[in-house]
Specification:
CATH class of the largest domain: Alpha Beta
Radius of gyration: 21 Å
Number of helices: 15
Structural class: alpha/beta
Strand content: 15-25%
CATH architecture of the largest domain: 3-Layer(aba) Sandwich
Shape: globular
Order of helices and strands: HEHEHHEHEHEHEEHEHEHEHEEHHHH
Number of strands: 12
Length: about 350
């Protein structure tokens, strides 16, 4: 990787997502690349985030102005790679112009959202030389390379100790959406009935988002406002909670088949995981000792799973789940068949 990326210039476009974009930029720079980053969105206020998903044309002039400014800032620079992560906002005219200005630049696309939830990227796929998705269904349907997500290097520091004591038997950290509250509430009650300690952290982007969802999203009518927080946890805070927790709870979006970041953070931290995503059984690393799958419509848990010791995954899988190998796949090699046999 260092040989490939050393002194290479990368234009990196990505939305802001819990500082993952900063971690990706930092890792690319550690591998020798020169990275120029632009937020994919011209604005990150709540109204803009909501409107571009519902009625994008309202903000189209602002989007166009923003990307015209990027064109001017990058026109006379040399780029070896254009790396777009997610592509929810990136307009076609920008890609056409950028490729014209930088004909030798390799254009790479990755998305960690399903096209069922965000369809705009489908329109711009044709402008990229290499295309990746974390969703196996989208990979098959649109002929893309498949590559699931990753854990950050800091999770490797959470190597469990033999006499380690846990404060929480179960930990959930996530954005409040869909049926997460309904499912997690059932699990919280089950934990209480079975004398297991649990900690649930629900994040939401703002009070206006909450009241909007409360009005129009049926699942939010059950949300307890007092249990919500408008402050997202920093990586250091998440690590502290992981350190004192035995099992991580993952509740994927019902319209999403790809595995969440939480799944790979659990691998990185060497933690067992309970998940609603049955797709995980298709992956080569699936292990019933470490992974327990529940039906979101009929939640059934087994206390014995909490008592099982974590079973170490092999070194190759552990490395391939890291951010470094995620980048290696995107910039150097195709790993589609490694994760789910027979996918490509």
């Amino acid at each position: 990787m260092k040989k490939t990326l050393n002194n290479k210039n990368i234009l990196f476009l990505s939305m802001q997502t819990f500082d993952y974009e900063k971690a990706i930029k930092k890792k690319l720079e550690e591998l020798g690349a020169n990275v120029q980053y632009f937020d994919e969105r011209p604005s990150n206020n709540i109204f803009f985030k909501g409107i571009i998903r519902i009625k994008r044309n309202i903000y189209q002039k602002k989007i166009n102005k923003y990307y015209n400014e990027i064109i001017l800032k990058t026109k006379n620079k040399l780029y070896h790679y254009l790396f777009v992560n997610r592509g929810e906002v990136v307009p076609e005219f920008f890609l056409i112009t950028f490729k014209k200005n930088h004909p030798e630049c390799e254009c790479i696309f990755y998305t960690w959202d399903s096209f069922e939830n965000y369809s705009h990227p489908i329109k711009i796929l044709k402008y990229f030389d290499k295309k990746f998705t974390f969703d196996p269904n989208d990979a098959i349907k649109f002929g893309l390379n498949f590559r699931p997500l990753f854990y950050l290097d800091v999770y490797k520091k959470l190597t469990p100790e033999a006499d380690e004591k846990f404060i929480y038997d179960l930990l959930f950290i996530g954005t409040a959406h869909s049926d997460r509250y309904i499912i997690s509430n059932k699990i919280a009650r089950w934990c209480e009935e079975n004398n297991l300690s649990s900690y649930f952290y629900y994040f939401i982007h703002g009070r206006l988002v909450y009241f909007y969802k409360k009005q129009f999203d049926k699942s939010f009518k059950m949300f307890d406002f007092k249990k919500l927080t408008f402050k997202s946890l920093k990586t250091e805070e998440i690590l502290k909670l992981y350190k004192v927790s035995n099992v991580i709870l993952d509740i994927n979006h019902p319209g999403q088949k790809g595995l969440t970041m939480r799944t790979f953070e659990a691998i990185g931290a060497r933690k067992k995981i309970i998940t609603t995503n049955s797709e995980i059984k298709k992956y080569t690393f699936y292990n019933s000792n470490n992974i327990y799958v529940i039906d979101r419509e009929d939640v059934i848990l087994d206390k014995s799973f909490f008592e099982l010791p974590y079973k170490e995954v092999d070194k190759e899988l552990y490395y391939k789940s890291s951010i470094e190998d995620w980048l290696k796949c995107i910039f150097l090699e195709n790993q589609s068949n490694y994760w789910i046999k027979g996918l490509n």
